[in-house]
Design a protein that fits this description.
7 helices; seven-stranded mixed beta sheet; 257 residues; 33% helix; globular; alpha/beta
Length: 257
């Protein structure tokens, strides 16, 4: 039987607004100048609300409608495709390595062999972004993406009818300075691993497009850990995920109270 594939496309338009909060730390080493402080303590409700908002939904969808949770259900091999006028290949590989170290449940490896890649990160200049979208998705679809928002980076996630991600491809701009590169790089990897939505009302996540963050925050790391808990299965419905989350959050010790 032919497998039904759903493609979710996530467009990322970056902004620079910041939010004030308590229980925060300075941006970690390696962040761009002016990066916002990171929030470090969250209630179970704050984690659950963020997970439900970001793990379900997307900017645009092609093909069959995904039924629930989308995530990889196998070891993940990530490959960085070098390109653009600024060589950021090593920096992108370091960022992927940080995800692998800080979220071990991803079972993520940075692969040199492109043929084995489950996640492909394509580094490009801003002037080539529209052409890259057209080459990847066709002229009509690319125009629809750009008409919906003014993206500076983008991720396409293909999943099967059971919610297992088949492949993810991200486009990351390299020639618009450190702030844009770092924000795109960290932001798009969250999408590639299954946090496919945005939430402009969430003051802690990198996936709020009114914030430019540029590092793997404590909050987003917690959400990825929940997504890749073995009990959070691909294809789980909103109701199933919502019923499971309190137990996962409590047992993981991710909540501050």
């Amino acid at each position: 039987m032919q497998q039904s594939i759903a493609t979710v496309v996530i467009l990322s338009a970056l902004a620079s607004a910041a939010f004030a909060a308590s229980n925060r730390q300075p941006a970690p080493p390696g962040s761009f100048a002016g990066a916002p402080p990171q929030y470090t303590r969250f209630t179970a409700d704050e984690l659950q609300r963020g997970f439900m908002a970001l793990a379900f939904g997307s900017d645009l969808r092609l093909g069959a409608r995904p039924k629930g949770i989308r995530r990889f259900d196998r070891p993940i091999h990530l490959h960085v495709v070098a390109g653009g006028g600024v060589d950021r290949t090593a920096a992108m590989q370091r960022i992927a390595g940080e995800y692998a170290e800080k979220v071990p449940a991803l079972n993520l490896t940075v692969a040199q062999d492109a043929s084995s890649a489950d996640v492909e990160i394509r580094l490009i200049d801003e002037k080539d972004f529209s052409a890259a979208l057209t080459e990847a998705f066709g002229r009509a679809t690319a125009r629809a993406f750009v008409a919906k928002t003014d993206p500076q980076c983008m991720t396409s996630v293909k999943s099967d009818e059971g919610g297992q991600i088949v492949q993810a491809v991200s486009f990351v701009i390299v020639d618009k300075g450190d702030a844009v590169f770092l924000d795109c790089a960290y932001h798009e990897l969250l999408h590639a691993f299954g946090l496919s939505n945005h939430d402009q009302h969430n003051a802690w996540t990198t996936l709020n497009q009114r914030r430019r963050v540029g590092y793997l925050s404590v909050y987003d790391r917690a959400l990825l850990s929940l997504l890749y808990d073995p009990r959070m299965r691909p294809g789980m419905t909103r109701a199933e995920a919502q019923a499971l989350l309190p137990r996962l959050i409590a047992e993981s010790g991710l909540a501050s109270e």
